[in-house]
Amino acid sequence: MHLTDHVTDMQLNEYLDNETTLAGRSEIELHLSTCEECAARLTALKSLFAEIESLPDLELTPNIAARFIPTRSLPAPQVSNWLTLTTTLQAALALIAMILATPIISRSLTPVLQAYPIPSLNAVLIDLQMNFVMWIQSIQSFQFPTIPTGIFTLQQEFSTGILFASLIGLFIIWIIGNWWLLRKRPNSLA
């Protein structure tokens, strides 16, 4: 008997984990004594498992561990039976009271509703259209105010050179300020 490639690894893993039956174990040991290829595979698996077991245990950092460690969810608050019954009865009584009060309220509101007629949907849409047309007309007739001349002229004591140097200075201060705000700072949370 020769074990196939796929079954060999699975059978050898079961053999190393002591998960084979007694008959299967003796059969595998008989085969390993006659087959050098399978014996070499068993030796390779033993050394692989020894290397894996010799690796140090690494602790997960809090940032990574939080992704994989399940969090306990708080249990939902339990509502007592008497509270559920009380709220259900209150809702039922409120519904019955509304049904019984409807004729009384409609009789008392009839004079008020007759005094203020409710416009039809057609009248509301026409009113909206008129307001929209008036809004468009007011936008079309809008004019920007005129700026008086001479407001942007430089006074006699300012020259264009002084103005240009001031603008360059402000630009440099702006660049330095942005650099200071956007520079990398050490992270205190890490």
What does this structure look like?
By secondary structure, this protein is an all-alpha fold. Among the domains are: 5-55; 80-109. Helix content is 68%, strand content 0%. It is built from seven helices and no strands. Helix 1 crosses helix 3 (36-54). It is flat.
Give the tally of β-strands. 0
Shape: flat
Our count of helices gives 7
Structural class: mainly alpha
Rg estimate, integer Å: 44 Å
On the 0 to 100 scale, the average pLDDT is: 80
Explain the layout of strands and helices.
Elements: H1 5-16, H2 22-34, H3 36-54, H4 62-68, H5 81-115, H6 121-140, H7 160-182
Helix pairs in contact: 1-3, 2-3
In short:
This protein is an all-alpha fold and 190 residues long.
Main attributes of the structure:
mainly alpha; single chain; 190 residues
